[in-house]
Amino acid sequence: MATPVGADPAVVGPYLASVLGDERWRSVDVQLIAAGMSNLTYVVTPRDGTDDDAVILRRPPTGAVLATAHDMAREHRVISALGPTDVPVPRTLHLCTDESVLGAPFYVMERVVGIHVVREFPPGYADEPAQRRAVGENLVDVLADLHSVDFTAVGLGEFGRPEGFAARQVRRWTKQWDATRDRDRPNLDALAARLAETVPATQRSSIVHGDYRLDNCLLDPEQPGRIRAVLDWEMSTLGDPLTDIGMMFVYWPQAGEERASTMSPVTTLPGFPTRAEVAERYAQRTGADLADLNWYVGFAFFKFAAIIAGIVARSAAGAMAGKDTSGYAERIDPCVELGRAALEDGAI
Predict the structure, then answer these.
(1) How far is residue 1 from each of residues 10, 30, 116, 252, measured CA to CA in Å?
(2) Which of 16, 93, 100, 294 is deepest in the core (most CB within 10 A)?
(3) Hey, what long-range contacts does 319-325 have (CB within 8 A, 24 or more apart)?
């Protein structure tokens, strides 16, 4: 088989055999998962093993990356800390910070068997509206559980600086956009400036995921609605939990909507709660005041636009391991307009 970019089986196998103390890993098959546009995810299976023996390896994109992005140690740390909590996460197995092994830090975790929903549910899964509603409601409940974790008690007291988080996030993603801008986009610059001028007061601080949505979770194959694992923690930190709600709304189109940010139309199916119902359930579960939700949605669209710009820039630099990014640049300006509409018109 062809050698996967960024994870040579001839290197990965002997390394895992050594650090895991198990010679069955000496020879492995490595498959790049065709999902995700940021960190690279691989399924690693012992050459004589089965799917049940496989583990997952995560590493940054190949090529140059921004200094604050793709921190494998942070991702490994937060997943390990959340293991004993009610938040479903994979069990971590090993962290490698020696860049001489694969050219970048990486970590290995258990492979959780679950339904990964990107564009649609598999045939025969969650066919009933009640099952789809359960999926939507449990997405909200797991996020509420995450935001309720005592981060100091699980060893994450120094995981971030929650004071002034929202303002810093605006500055961070403005700098990210500046570092990866593909061309002049004055409306994006204007949205960044307006967000910086109107940052709301933070009610409370928690662990935030940073990119929480349906396709960053695995669903139980037998019980639609149960979340087996939350994945892709590369943007996690301590901060304002309402930023997670705002970002979830970016990825939550409703029936009849076509939005530039729609990575998946699944939430338009009958049974899924509306964004207003999501907000109400989250407020009931957490006691949060959502009076300023429009700012968080506006910020999330701005952040999404900056992320897409980063993907476009990395793709142009040849650092996306062959992933198809065609059409991504055309999504940026419509997302900026959705952000403006949320911030100025309250259109969440």
Answers:
(1) 12, 9, 25, 38
(2) 16
(3) 319/61, 319/62, 319/63, 319/64, 319/65, 320/37, 320/61, 321/5, 321/6, 321/32, 321/40, 321/61, 321/62, 322/5, 323/34, 323/37, 325/37
What size, in residues, is the chain? 348
Question: Confidence band (pLDDT; 50, 70, 90) for 258?
Answer: confident
Q: What is the mean pLDDT of residues 197-225?
A: 95
Collapse the DSSP code of 107 into the 3-class scheme (helix H, G, I; strand E, B; otherwise coil) and give the result: strand
**Coil/strand/helix, residue 112:** coil
Instruction: Determine whether 52 is exposed, middle or buried from the number of CB atoms within 10 Å of its CB (0-12, 13-18, 19+).
Output: exposed
Q: How far apart, in whole angstroms, are the C-alpha atoms of residue 348 and residue 343?
A: 8
Structure tokens at 27: 């020879």
Task: Give pLDDT, residue 4.
Answer: 81
Cα–Cα distance, 160 to 71 (Å, whole number): 13
- Per-residue pLDDT at 69 exceeds 50: yes
Predicted local confidence at residue 183, as pLDDT: 83
Q: Give the residue from 273, 156, 167 showing the smallest Cα distance to 214.
A: 273
pTM of the model: 0.89
Residue 116 CB contacts under 8 Å (≥ 6 apart), including other chains: 35, 215, 218, 219
Half-sphere exposure of 147 (CA within 13 A, CB side): 24
SS3 17: helix
